[in-house]
Amino acid sequence: MRPALLSLAIALVPTCATVRAGAPVSFHTDVAAVLSRAGCNSGPCHGNLNGKGGFKLSLRGFDPDADYVTLTRDMLARRTDPVRPTESLLLKKATGQVSHEGGVRFGPSGTEYAILRDWIAGGCRPDPVGTPRLVSLVVSPPSRVLIEPEDRVKLTATARYSDGSVRDVTGLVAFETNNIGVAKVLPTGEVIREQVGELVVLVRYLDLQVPVRLAFLPNRPVPDLASEPVHNEIDRLVYAQLGQLRLKPSALATDAVFLRRAYLDACGITPTAAEARRFLADIAPDKRVRLIDDLLARPEFASYWAQKWSDLLRNEEKSLDHKGVQVFHRWIKGWLAEDKPLTEFAREILAARGSTYVNPAANFYRAVRDPYQRAESVAQVFLGLRVSCAKCHNHPFDRWTQDDYHRFVALFGRIDYRVLENGRRDKFDKHEFVGEQLVLATHDGELAHPRGGDAVPKFLGTTTGSLTGNADRLRALADWVAAPENPFFAKAQANRVWFHLTGRGLVDPNDDFRVSNPPANPALLDHLAAEFARGGYRLKPLVRYIMTSRVYQLASTPNETNATDETHFSRALIQPLEAEQLLDAVSQTLGTPVKFPGYPDGTRAGEVPAPPPAARRGKEAMGPRFLKVFGKPDRLLTCECERSEDGGMMQALQLLTGELVHGLIRAPDNRLSVLLASGKSNSDVLDDLYLSALARYPSEVERVKLLAYTGHAVDRRAAWEDVAWGLVNAKEFLLRR
After folding, report:
1. Which one of 383, 441, 530, 652 is most buried, by most CB atoms within 10 A?
2. How many whole angstroms from its chain centre is CA 494?
3. How far apart are CA 579 and CA 632, in angstroms?
4. Region 151-173: what's the mean pLDDT?
């Protein structure tokens, strides 16, 4: 407790003491826990920024010392009355004896009431020096799968304190759930099913939180997974979980579906007709592995993954200017093409300084100019942590305290930049920069801690000494992030790659690792992180390892057990094509490139380093406008979540009647023109279009109907334009299956 607050508190309360059941009531471990369990210090109640009814507590009890003073210093309000404890407003409001907007929080015969009454009756004493503090919290069971008719499970919480003592605190913890409709949680810790499904119960006691994953399942047969083919350890770990959940994996995807999926996921493109024809005709048992190896060696692989990293690192023209975007993108792409370790990639970015033209990695600090944004971006991109909630108070759903946040931000307090020139075109836009800049590291200047004084720099989640003096903070940060013993980097990057290849992170959202958001398959995440490390922290070995697993190659077609499963990877998730993938797929299918102003003819959408600045969007060409409509991000956030995948009327109109698509279909030198001029039969033309668009041959029904339509058409070209239009508007074309 801070000395000033402690002195004030002692001066305002009587000096008598009390015991409860032979032991003193502790404010920190008993009273504070009751306030949290009852929800008194929650956001909607007195934990609100402005409090409620003139009474304010720290959010979720992150500052118990301040809460102690709040409860004891205002004797006129009679929140606590040691002379007449039962008349204390703290008790009367919580039990509904007087009007209380928050309603009844507990009854007069409960443990919560007894703890508060005894503490007040004892004089509201602060904890004496040396009072044991909470060290750990264990919840049993840590996870559970319940099969009908089982419909409930009892959770128990055990706390361990600094003196080695152990105590059952089930009656003092707060229970929260992420899926209210599946089950209800009673104050006793009993979880009762309300419907079939899965949920996470977060058990919170003081500043510690423990997640418990529960699944309530129907009494369906246990699938026989012993005969399921296993390609690598990924399959074993996924099958082990599916067996517990009584989920049967879908069948293997067809060659055509796998072919298109692999091209899209590895390189962001679709196969040509010739590539599809060759793969489908191959009868070798290892053809899928060979295809994956070929894709990883293609230049499109580096271009595609450079787009993903450019999204995260906010490589956009308004802050970096056209040249800065180009050099930053070229540097990212070159790093990935050489498949150098991502640990060193992170190290280069975090320690970068100097000219943003000469040292491209320094553009990261040019794009993110505020120390608070820099800290939050680094935590999110490289560590998978969203720490912004801890800026004003302890993180309500994670381990990070306000002190952790500001000490991490202090690492970035000595970064400065110098604008050598700024030839921005919009003189009224202070956020636009055009010209060379320098990123500098200074040796003075500290960020203030909100509770007073300077924030001493320190890494997240470490117990090592703080950085002081003139130490090179950026270099120290870069070394810590890239170190093999870093507890966050490998898991965060492995999870991100898994997300991009399967459509869902093991931790989802993929950059939100927190206590209350546990991984869907912890053993698999640990294994992927270890495999990533074994591969030298390089991207290609991890991508190859995941893509060669049978789990990755499963079909999206569900069976009788997994139709609703979108969490445990028992089937492939159907996803809409990304904006760049879709535009390049349309262009490749119709055999006509899309023009992007400022870039050479033939440049694909997936190769354009950055979208045009928002201020000039009204002058956009058709290609950039199409990308924006289909969700290409402006790169103003350090998050994949900025990329939109939500369909809408504008997307439908772009495909159905849009100028760009219709222009490509009617182009005089497109694929249709070449095919029709080649003298090929209608059947061969149909095969070529289907292979280009869907990586498969038409079914017999499709072949009969479409050949009849085109064969009887008066205008052969117009009929084939209709077929092409139908293909690029088909769900099978628009989705990655």
Report:
1. 383
2. 12
3. 6
4. 95
Q: Are 351 and 454 in the same domain?
A: yes
Domain end point (choices 527, 548, 573): 573
The secondary structure element, H or E, covering residue 9 is: helix 3-12
Establish if 325 belongs to a structural domain.
no
- 615 pLDDT higher than 80: no
Distances in whole angstroms, Cα of residue 194 to Cα of each of 177, 180, 188, 475: 13, 9, 17, 53
Beta bridge partners of 192: 152, 184
- For the chain, the domain total comes to 5
Residue 305 lies in a domain: no
Q: Is the dihedral of CA 428, 429, 434, 435 positive or negative?
A: positive
Residue 266 has pLDDT above 90, yes or no: yes
Angle, CA 246 vertex, CA 242 and CA 522 arms, to 5°: 30
End-to-end CA distance of the chain: 57
- Domain end: 190, 217, 244, which one? 217
Domain assignment of residue 225, yes or no: no
The whole-angstrom separation of Cα 237 and Cα 253 is: 20
The reply to whether 57 and 21 lie within a common domain is yes
Do residue 704 and residue 588 come from a single domain? Answer: yes
Q: How many CB atoms lie within 10 A of CB 434?
A: 18
What is the span of the domain harbouring residue 161?
A: 134-217
Pairing of strands 166-168, 156-161: antiparallel
Q: Are 590 and 728 in a shared domain? A: yes
pLDDT tens digits, residue range 479-512? 999 999 999 999 999 999 999 999 999 999 999 9
Both tokens assigned to 273: 């007709």
Q: Identify the residue whose tokens are 């990293």.
A: 309
User: DSSP assignment, residue 252?
Assistant: B
Establish if 177 belongs to a structural domain.
Answer: yes
